[in-house]
Structure formats: C-alpha cells, structure tokens
Amino acid sequence: MLHLFARTQKQKKLVHNLSCRGVSHIDFGSLKMSGGPGLESLVDQTISVITNDGRNIVGVLKGFDQATNIILDESHERVYSTKEGVQQLVLGLYIIRGDNISVVGELDEDLDAHLDLSKLRAHPLKPVIH
Amino acid sequence: MLPLSLLKSAQGHPMLVELKNGETYNGHLVNCDTWMNIHLREVICTSKDGDRFWRMPECYIRGNTIKYLRVPDEVIDKVQEETKSRSDRKPPGVGRGRGRGREDGPGGRQPKGIGRGLDDGGAKGMGGGRGRGGSGGKAGGSRGAGRGRG
C-alpha cells in the first residue's frame, strides 16, 4: 500500500498523483533530504571534484552541508596538460565552498589505480562562465 | 561532519583562503560565523598571479567571496574530539526536565513570557545583523585590500 509511506498531506497528494501515473514506490526517506546535495553515500569515500575554475581535486569526502560546501581530506589536485603527464599537487585538508563546485563524482579506485597518469595527456578544463 | 564545524574548530590555526577573484590570504583564524565570514590576524595577501604581496595585521572576509580554505590536517582530529566530548557531556532528557519545571510552577507563565521576549529580541538582532554584516563586511574587505596596495 503506497499511501502508507506518505506522512504529510503534501506527500499523500503526491502519492495519489503519481499512483495515477503508474508509479508504485516512492522513498520518502530520501525525498526528505532533497534540500541537501545527497552526498551521504559518498562520505569517507574518495571523490573527484571539478571546480568552477576548472580544477580537478581528488580526496576523501569527510562532510558536506546544504550549500554543497564540502570537506576533502588527503586531497590533491590533478593538473592536466597536453605537453606532459598529469601533475599531482598535494593539498591536504580542504574546505571547498559550494559556490565553486561544478561536479562531484565517486572515484573508482580500482580503475584509478590502473591509470598511468604520467602518460596521460589532456587539455586543462576551461573555467565556468556565468 | 559539517564544513562550518571544521572551520570553527580551526580557530587559532593558520590557514590559507583563496577568494573567487584569485587572491589568497594567509593568516590565523580569529573567528568565523555561519555565513563563512572570517576574521584573520597576521595576514599576508597574495595577488592572483602570485607576484605581489601585502601584509596586514588583520582582515575580515565576507563568506560568499571565498573559493576554498586550506586548513592544517590536525584540525580534523580536533573536531572529532570536540563532537565526541559534546555528546558525552549532554545526557538525553536534560532539556525535557527543565521544560516541565517551568510549566509546573505557579509563576510558570512569567518566566515563559520573559523567555519569549528574549527569543524575539534575538531573532530581531540576527535579522538586523545580517544586513549590517553584509555591507560592512564587503566594505571592510575591499578597504583593507586598498590600503595594502597604497
């Protein structure tokens, strides 16, 4: 019974609306968190962040908030260039303001371990233009 | 762990702040607030290109101009200790007990009324502060940088 999961009047209305369209399951537990960036599942995992200025920062996600400000531990920046391999700069513990974040992605550590960064050539990313 | 709690725990520690305009500020964190506005002491400001430097005894940076903060690694251990000790200190049910005591007494209404008044005052103060803090912070920041250049 779908409506059992709905607690508030708003949720019940939504359930009615969606069940008319053939939707059979809604997880209100996760809908409730829709105010935040939904990064819970990535905490304590290695993530890769692309910032608005085109940097790529890799580190362990330690925390985040509603504004997508994030804490990155043991972080390093990967600097891409077409002339030489990828340079890794050690950054350490970082708080990145959400305003400056474009993309947060889970890093596949197995795949990453098999990359030979010294042979990898790529254009650096351009900054985001607002 | 919240980014702003980590920042709060970094009080007294040296840190590097990069602004959206590319300038960086190295200094010791004096204080910060929930908007990430920060107050630094013993500051060295570096231009975007890293070729010019200014020293200033203190500066105040409006939170929304910040790109990122680099904090010492050990701060993350400190914040974990602090949150642990806070949860140890506060046994559950303390708040509820206090609430009942107020309601029971014959003078229960009186303190309740006072409490409400205080709350309203606080809320008002915060609202006003937001506006003031905004313009003040911005003006302070740019003024500080200008002085350094001159």
Automatic annotation (TrEMBL), chain A:
<protein>
    <recommendedName>
        <fullName>U6 snRNA-associated Sm-like protein LSm8</fullName>
    </recommendedName>
</protein>
<feature type="domain" description="Sm">
    <location>
        <begin position="34"/>
        <end position="110"/>
    </location>
</feature>
<dbReference type="GO" id="GO:0005688">
    <property type="term" value="C:U6 snRNP"/>
</dbReference>
<dbReference type="GO" id="GO:0000398">
    <property type="term" value="P:mRNA splicing, via spliceosome"/>
</dbReference>
<dbReference type="GO" id="GO:0046540">
    <property type="term" value="C:U4/U6 x U5 tri-snRNP complex"/>
</dbReference>
<dbReference type="Pfam" id="PF01423">
    <property type="entry name" value="LSM"/>
</dbReference>
<dbReference type="InterPro" id="IPR047575">
    <property type="entry name" value="Sm"/>
</dbReference>
<keyword id="KW-0687">Ribonucleoprotein</keyword>
<keyword id="KW-0694">RNA-binding</keyword>
<dbReference type="InterPro" id="IPR034103">
    <property type="entry name" value="Lsm8"/>
</dbReference>
<dbReference type="InterPro" id="IPR044642">
    <property type="entry name" value="PTHR15588"/>
</dbReference>
<comment type="similarity">
    <text>Belongs to the snRNP Sm proteins family.</text>
</comment>
<dbReference type="InterPro" id="IPR001163">
    <property type="entry name" value="Sm_dom_euk/arc"/>
</dbReference>
<keyword id="KW-0747">Spliceosome</keyword>
<keyword id="KW-0508">mRNA splicing</keyword>
<dbReference type="GO" id="GO:0071011">
    <property type="term" value="C:precatalytic spliceosome"/>
</dbReference>
<dbReference type="GO" id="GO:0003729">
    <property type="term" value="F:mRNA binding"/>
</dbReference>
<keyword id="KW-0507">mRNA processing</keyword>
<keyword id="KW-0539">Nucleus</keyword>
<comment type="subunit">
    <text>LSm subunits form a heteromer with a doughnut shape.</text>
</comment>
<comment type="function">
    <text>Plays role in pre-mRNA splicing as component of the U4/U6-U5 tri-snRNP complex that is involved in spliceosome assembly, and as component of the precatalytic spliceosome (spliceosome B complex). The heptameric LSM2-8 complex binds specifically to the 3'-terminal U-tract of U6 snRNA.</text>
</comment>
<dbReference type="InterPro" id="IPR010920">
    <property type="entry name" value="LSM_dom_sf"/>
</dbReference>
From TrEMBL, chain B:
<feature type="compositionally biased region" description="Gly residues">
    <location>
        <begin position="123"/>
        <end position="150"/>
    </location>
</feature>
<dbReference type="GO" id="GO:0120115">
    <property type="term" value="C:Lsm2-8 complex"/>
</dbReference>
<feature type="region of interest" description="Disordered">
    <location>
        <begin position="79"/>
        <end position="150"/>
    </location>
</feature>
<dbReference type="GO" id="GO:0003723">
    <property type="term" value="F:RNA binding"/>
</dbReference>
<keyword id="KW-0747">Spliceosome</keyword>
<dbReference type="GO" id="GO:0000956">
    <property type="term" value="P:nuclear-transcribed mRNA catabolic process"/>
</dbReference>
<dbReference type="InterPro" id="IPR010920">
    <property type="entry name" value="LSM_dom_sf"/>
</dbReference>
<keyword id="KW-0508">mRNA splicing</keyword>
<keyword id="KW-0507">mRNA processing</keyword>
<comment type="subunit">
    <text>LSm subunits form a heteromer with a doughnut shape.</text>
</comment>
<keyword id="KW-0694">RNA-binding</keyword>
<dbReference type="InterPro" id="IPR001163">
    <property type="entry name" value="Sm_dom_euk/arc"/>
</dbReference>
<dbReference type="GO" id="GO:0005681">
    <property type="term" value="C:spliceosomal complex"/>
</dbReference>
<keyword id="KW-0687">Ribonucleoprotein</keyword>
<feature type="domain" description="Sm">
    <location>
        <begin position="2"/>
        <end position="75"/>
    </location>
</feature>
<dbReference type="InterPro" id="IPR047575">
    <property type="entry name" value="Sm"/>
</dbReference>
<feature type="compositionally biased region" description="Basic and acidic residues">
    <location>
        <begin position="79"/>
        <end position="91"/>
    </location>
</feature>
<dbReference type="Pfam" id="PF01423">
    <property type="entry name" value="LSM"/>
</dbReference>
<keyword id="KW-0539">Nucleus</keyword>
<comment type="similarity">
    <text>Belongs to the snRNP Sm proteins family.</text>
</comment>
<dbReference type="InterPro" id="IPR027141">
    <property type="entry name" value="LSm4/Sm_D1/D3"/>
</dbReference>
<dbReference type="InterPro" id="IPR034101">
    <property type="entry name" value="Lsm4"/>
</dbReference>
